[in-house]
Each structure stands twice: as C-alpha cells, then as structure tokens.
Task: structure prediction
Amino acid sequence: MGVAGVTDVLTLAHDPMRMSTSDVLADHFHKLVNSEVRRGAENGVNVHVGLGVHPRSINDQVDTTLELLPDFVAHPAVVAIGEIGLETCTTVEEQVFRTQLEIDYYPKVIHTPRRAKREVLERIIAIVDDVGAKDVVIDHIDPSTIDVALEAGTYIGITVQPGKASVREAVGLIIEYPEAKFVVNSDLSSQRSDCLSVARVLRALTVEGYADRAQKACVQNGRDLFLR
Ligand SMILES: [Zn+2]
Result:
C-alpha cells in the first residue's frame, strides 16, 4: 500500500477469530494498537485504529469488555470506535451497540450485515438518531441500500471488496449522489480483500473527470473525520 502512495490507513476491530472471552477480545485490541501500528510504520504507512465490540464478537463477558473499552480507546493510535453495529438485532446486540455509541468524542464506524440489510439498517438509523450520535459512518452501503442510508444524513461507507460493492458500483454511487458524504474503504480482513480497492475507485473517478469527488470520497472525508 505504501508503494502505491497510501500514507494512512484506519484498521478496525472486527471478528477475525471466535471471540469466546473478554480476554480474546482484549488480545485482538492489543494486536491492533501494537503489532498493526508497528507493521504499518515498518512499511511507510501510518496505521490508525478503531476499537469496539463488533456485533459478531459479543460473548457472555461483553460487560467486562465494555468496562475496559474507555481505557483501550485512550491509546494514542485510536481515532475511532468501530466496528460496532447490529447483525441480527437481538436485545443484547442493541444494548452493546447503544453503549458504544454513547462513548463521547470519537467518531463511530457502524457495520451493517449482509442479511436483511435494509431492515437492520433502518433499526441502526433509529438508534443513532435516538442516541444523537455525531460523526458516524454507516458502512457497507451499496446500491440496494443507498436510499435508506441517505435519509440518515451521516457519512456513508462504501466497502469495495469481493461480495460487497464493486469498483464500478462505488464509482456509480459517487457520481449519482454528489451531495452524499462518502467514505470509500477496502475492509481488508480475513475475507477475500483488495488492499488497493480505494486507490482503484480514486483512479477510476479521476479518469472519468470527477477528481474532486474522488478526493473527497477516497481521501478527504476520512481525513476530516478521523485525523482531525
Ligand atoms: Zn463490517
């Protein structure tokens, strides 16, 4: 990524393994703020971190993790809370999501699921509104959910990754909705991913004559939100 001109990345807590206890989750957080930041620095990339309990990482010790989370996010590499969100809208998921939305100061990155995406997205927006959370990115939005996401008035994350949006779909959305605040991302994870997908969207938009929008959606909106 450094070779391709990427200077800064944001890596987020997710569910790379079975998060069976609060200790496993703590070790995941520890790896992000230590090894991942160091690995980036060794390769000329500034790695910034978002921490949080992903809805698929909730276990029966989640209260312990939530108690420790404010201490974890005080680490200087941490610039966001995320990924947080809902997967199936259980009562516990909604409680964990709401608790993390209420943590002050940090922008939040919100996961939306593959299944029942529209319904879950509507529930997410209702909770974001209810909490009054500011500086929120609702992520993994695609052509099938853009109409719902636009109503939220938040930043809209477009994940360009196999199984989520394609480069073409991202370009289409950014051209079609000039008023939206997009944050294009690659969601590099243990799933099949393309570490240059944001650069590909930036280049495709620029070639098609939308250099300003490309800069905003692929670079500046993320900088404004996470590196202020
Ligand atoms: Zn996600």
